[in-house]
Write a structure and sequence with these properties.
The protein is of the alpha/beta class. It is 68% helix and 8% strand. The strands form two sheets. A four-stranded mixed beta sheet has the order 2-1-3-4, sandwiched between helices. Strands 5-6 form a two-stranded antiparallel sheet. Helix 3 links the parallel strand 1 and strand 2. The radius of gyration is 30 Å and the shape is elongated. The protein starts with a helix and ends with a helix.
Length: 413
């Protein structure tokens, strides 16, 4: 056991003193905060589009314009062209060619008393403006039709006013303010941190095996240390580095969230409810997820001769990550569905998908216990296979291991 701790201490100090640890510890949160800031401020910058509302009915066109201008965040510049005919449409095309306007809304009455609405734009992917126009035109049409039915114009606005829905989260017998956006961001942050640390440090184990294998340092170390002790020490030491990095992020994150500047930024958003239990479980999922991936890459690296050869197997680790993030929106909206439960039980994806479920709705205790148990069993199986590949493969040089040869290594006593 003493040899295990000596190897673990060596791996830990080597990783902690390295530039990669220092850079990722500081740079990764900074990049992530920058991305979140861009996302938040991008919504307040608005589109700043210059559009023209063209219709045969001037009252309808004016109401559409008023609805568009009512959204201050959009910062749109809206002109009205009414009554409009086909010649005016060609004029608007010419203005778009000269880039004087960004687009125009064309409203045409149809024989069935409905209105055909067309938005012509110079940009095909302007989703925010399309959504804003959809709401503005529908709201304006309701007002226009109510006035046409004889309802006084002064009474139309109160009748068609919108209502803001305040969302609350019911947890442990209490109602607390919640926000779908803040919950979404929290889930992404937790899953991203787990993904980055688990996969990165799992790959670090593989790289460490390759580096020591190519430098032939194993031949010296194996004279005094068992191969299984070396593997165990390597996994413990590098895993401790990951826990250290997560602890640093949690401490500085807690300090940042309590600062006055962040309080001002988050004043309009409901904070996600995070308990000590959830933080402890996330750390536990990191340890187990790291154990699974690192054991896998350690055994795989023992069969490789170069880091480039190991990198070819990196997509194997990316598949569970893609699968987990592909289910992100579904899990956040349906955290207790059968598919969400199944994918959170699948060991390669459970660390990430459980982070999504923690953010959306805390799972039942039996599901967490079953997920952890399956993850632990899978670690035992992968570790058993990897240790057998490791103790033979680290001494193999100059020959790529084939599948039949790997199976022979597994049968060695």
């Amino acid at each position: 056991m003493r040899n295990v701790w000596l190897v673990a201490q060596r791996e830990y100090m080597e990783q902690i003193r390295g530039k990669t640890f220092k850079i990722t510890t500081v740079l990764l949160p900074a990049v992530f905060i920058g991305i979140m800031a861009v996302m938040v401020f991008a919504g307040s910058w608005g589109s700043g589009k210059h559009v023209v509302v063209a219709a045969q009915n001037q009252d309808l066109a004016m109401r559409v314009r008023d609805q568009l201008l009512a959204d201050k965040d959009a910062k749109m510049s809206v002109d009205v062209l009414a009554p409009a005919n086909e010649a005016d449409r060609q004029t608007l095309h010419a203005e778009m060619d000269r880039k004087e306007i960004d687009g125009f809304v064309w409203l045409t009455p149809s024989p069935d008393a409905k209105v055909q609405v067309t938005y012509v734009s110079r940009s095909a992917g302007d989703f925010s403006t399309n959504d804003l126009l959809q709401k503005a035109v529908n709201h304006a049409l309701v007002e226009h039709r109510l006035v046409a039915k004889g309802i006084p114009a002064a009474e139309v606005a109160p009748l068609t006013g919108t209502v803001d829905v305040k969302t609350m989260l019911y947890r442990q017998g209490k109602e607390t303010p919640s926000s779908a956006l803040s919950t979404l961001i929290f889930g992404e942050v937790m899953a991203f941190l787990l993904t980055f640390t688990v996969v990165m440090y799992g790959m670090n184990v593989g790289r460490s095996v390759i580096q020591e294998k190519t430098s032939r340092i194993f031949e010296v170390m194996l004279a005094t240390v068992k191969s299984t002790d070396m593997l165990a020490g390597k996994l413990i030491g590098i895993g401790a580095v990951g826990l250290t990095q997560i602890a640093i992020w949690i401490i500085f994150g807690a300090i940042a969230l309590s600062s006055a500047l962040v309080e001002t930024w988050l004043s309009g958003y409901a904070r996600p409810q995070v308990s000590v239990t959830e933080i402890a479980l996330l750390c536990l999922y990191f340890v187990l997820g790291y154990g699974l991936y690192s054991a896998f890459f350690a055994g795989l690296a023992a069969t490789c001769d170069t880091e480039q050869e190991l990198q070819q197997y990196a997509p194997l680790a990316a598949v569970p990550v893609w699968l987990s993030f592909g289910m992100f929106v579904y899990i956040m909206g349906n955290p207790n569905s059968i598919w969400s439960i199944l994918i959170s039980m699948f060991p390669p994806t459970s660390p990430i998908t459980m982070a999504f479920r923690f953010a959306a709705q805390f799972p039942p205790a039996w599901q967490i216990a079953l997920s952890l148990a399956l993850l632990a069993v899978s670690i035992y199986i992968v570790l058993w296979l990897s240790s057998r590949l490791y103790r033979v493969g680290i001494l193999m040089y100059g020959k790529r291991a084939t599948l039949p040869e790997m199976f022979r290594w597994l049968r060695y006593s």
